[in-house]
Amino acid sequence: MELKLSIILLFICLVGFSQVEITGNEDLITLAKDFKFQHPMTVTSAKEIAIVKDRIKNGVEPQATAFKKLILAADSLQTFLPNPPDTFYISKGDPELRDSLWRSCSAAYTSALAYTYTGNEKYAIKAVEVLNTWARKNTAFTGKSIYLQLGAWFTPMLYSADLLNDYEGWKQEDRFLFKRWWKEQCLVNTIDVMRTKLNNWADAGVVGCMAAAVVFEDRELLEESLNELLSYYKANSTGKVASFGTSWKLANDSNGVYLPLEAVRELGRKGLTYSYLAMTTTVQSLEMARYAGYDFWTAKTPQGANFQGVIEQLFKWSILGEPFPWYKNPDNDKTVQVNTFEIANSNCILPTSMKDWLNTNRPVLGEQGDEYVTLNKGDIFNF
Q: What is the domain extent for residue 326?
């Protein structure tokens, strides 16, 4: 009976997401007139939650172990006290400042997700406390790196808000205050970086804008974000100026399938680092696009490059140790931001080497993106 229930849930989930398969040749994405926002639709969906809950109940891996880690983290965060400043100055690439952002958004997201899977209100109360504290402080952000870091390191605050959409304990006046603060202090920066920048800065902007569009049910912003993703497959279709070739985002040549603007960072020494930074946010944007009904995983550039190819190539360089064309021994921190591989696994048929690596290293708890991606996605589609 339990096996039958799992099969039924999986079938419902697969059927429930009828997708428009993007080819990359489309000129414009326009949401249907009858499009409706559903919650959650940032890191997971109601149908996927049902599948994961069933796997947790029956002790199915990788969810069983990943769930235990989530609860341990959520319980430890019951004593977390958010203490946002009046003004948060973010200088370029300062890890201490990034960590400060991450601690709060991770506390909110971890707690909201624990509430989602358990129904225990103590977790929702903690998540709401974090969101409300920042909104009531009305923290302003300054510094040269706010555009990048707010998208890349602070977006999980929105994942928490999305998961708490139906939680009655989050009062309407507090929701309004959070929305106003986010739009005035955070979204204005992520919109700017999405519209004006290239490489991983643009990726950070897209994930921040797309999550905000979902949480605040902003159709126009969601359409703009989807079309920014679409521009990744075209030759400078956004009017942005690139310094190379016919496509500023994806390349497919004798070096492999890769992100040209990331691979050459610091003459290649930081090529893997920045490829990870770009992909860990991009794959999350691809998931939100999927929840909105648009499957970008099938899209290709005119040269045949797609994100599955980028991810598989990154795995070969970073995990398997294949030679990196631009630098002999590039920086290669494999301990974080590997949510990329788990999300790809839930959308693509990956090589056995990647599946084996995931089975050995789960649960992956990469920073940025969905840090609980193994719990939310691991093997639920059985690719």
A: 2-377
